Q: What sequence folds into this?
């Protein structure tokens, strides 16, 4: 019996070692040979979750690529950003979606919850460091094992099919032709500056700061943007960060841009017509170089507020 158990244990150890070294080999191959090169050689990119993914049509905005992805937290955005900047030296400015829902504790689920982790970990595990893996293991070890097994299959497929350029699978503009039926909200434009107490997502905020600091190290501009919405909840955490940790970061608030409900898919996402309208306006902003001109940004922000009152 002891010999049998010893053989079983030896087999399991051998199997784990094979899996471990296979993972290292496949990860090295993917990290070494995958390409994040953007054929457009853009000067600007937009990163964020579904709000920015559905708001900015990069076929309309010159020198810009929208690489936002639905349901993406700053944790995975940071991992993706490092590879994007490594492979695209033409990028001068990052526009980063900053919405109130990105700093509250529901974002923890977007980092290590089963659904999000099982989808994103296979895509980005080859580019993650030890600490980033440890974050997931510590917070959800059981589901991490499922995500880890999915990542092995993903890496093996990458190796076998040799699809080296991954730039088209890491995010992009999402067109939606659905129109919001909620006419009541547009009459009151539910923009709240007080809300029920919420807890912060310390990890997502940590990676928001990491994104900003990393871009600063590479002399890449960062502009925080809040996309148009019908219902925006400016919780205290969101506002506190703007006043303190993010006070030195350029910020432009599109959230109260005066668009009728027919230009929205729902309360927080634009449809394709709304995206086209805001994208034309965004194109004009880039032409007057509002990124580097703080005074110009203030003037434009006041203009949006005056339109809202009208």
A:
């Amino acid at each position: 019996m002891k010999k049998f158990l010893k053989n079983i244990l030896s087999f399991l150890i051998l199997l784990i070692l094979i899996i471990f070294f296979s993972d290292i080999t496949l990860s090295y191959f993917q990290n070494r040979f995958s390409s994040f090169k953007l054929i457009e050689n853009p000067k600007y990119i937009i990163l964020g979750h579904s709000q920015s993914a559905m708001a900015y049509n990069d076929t309309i905005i010159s020198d810009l690529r929208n690489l936002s992805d639905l349901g993406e937290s700053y944790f995975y955005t940071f991992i993706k950003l490092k590879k994007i900047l490594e492979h695209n030296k033409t990028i001068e400015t990052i526009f980063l979606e900053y919405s109130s829902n990105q700093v509250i504790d529901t974002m923890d689920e977007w980092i290590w919850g089963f659904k999000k982790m099982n989808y994103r970990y296979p895509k980005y595990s080859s580019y993650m460091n030890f600490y980033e893996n440890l974050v997931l293991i510590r917070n959800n070890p059981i589901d991490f094992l499922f995500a880890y097994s999915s990542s092995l299959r993903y890496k093996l497929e990458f190796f076998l099919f040799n699809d080296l350029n991954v730039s088209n699978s890491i995010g992009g503009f999402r067109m939606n032709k659905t129109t919001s039926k909620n006419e009541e909200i547009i009459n009151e434009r539910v923009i709240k500056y007080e809300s029920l107490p919420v807890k912060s997502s310390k990890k997502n905020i940590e990676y928001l700061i990491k994104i900003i600091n990393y871009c600063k190290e590479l002399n890449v501009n960062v502009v925080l943007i809040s996309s148009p919405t019908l219902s925006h909840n400016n919780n205290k955490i969101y506002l506190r960060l703007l006043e303190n940790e993010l006070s030195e970061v350029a910020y432009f608030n599109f959230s109260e841009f005066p668009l009728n409900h027919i230009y929205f898919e729902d309360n927080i996402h634009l449809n394709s017509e709304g995206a086209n309208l805001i994208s034309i306006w965004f194109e004009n902003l880039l032409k007057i170089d509002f990124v580097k001109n703080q005074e110009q940004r203030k003037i434009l922000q006041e203009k949006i507020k005056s339109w809202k009152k009208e």
